[in-house]
Amino acid sequence: MDNDEFENLVKPVAEAAEETALNNGAWSSYKNELCTERDMFIHEFKDGHMELVKVGKKPGDYTVLKVF
Question: Most buried among 7, 17, 45, 62, by the most CB within 10 A?
């Protein structure tokens, strides 16, 4: 199985898992140009709102820097 075949196999499963997580109150987390420090991320929620956050040293610890 090559990379494209593998991606086509797992993509629907990953998308379904993400949708389930979003439906249960979780968020998608990623970096963009607003993340100017190593510990900054964007959290995007199902309703479309986003938060620029800075993660802390402990798991689950973060500070919301901006909501948009």
Answer: 62
Q: Where are the domains of the chain?
A: 3-67
- Characterize 32-67 residue by residue with b for buried, 16 or more Cβ atoms within 10 angstroms of its Cβ, and e for exposed: eeebeeeebbbbeeeeeebbbbebeeeeeebeeeee
User: Based on the number of CB atoms within 10 Å of its own CB, is 28 exposed (0-12), middle (13-18) or buried (19 or more)?
Assistant: middle
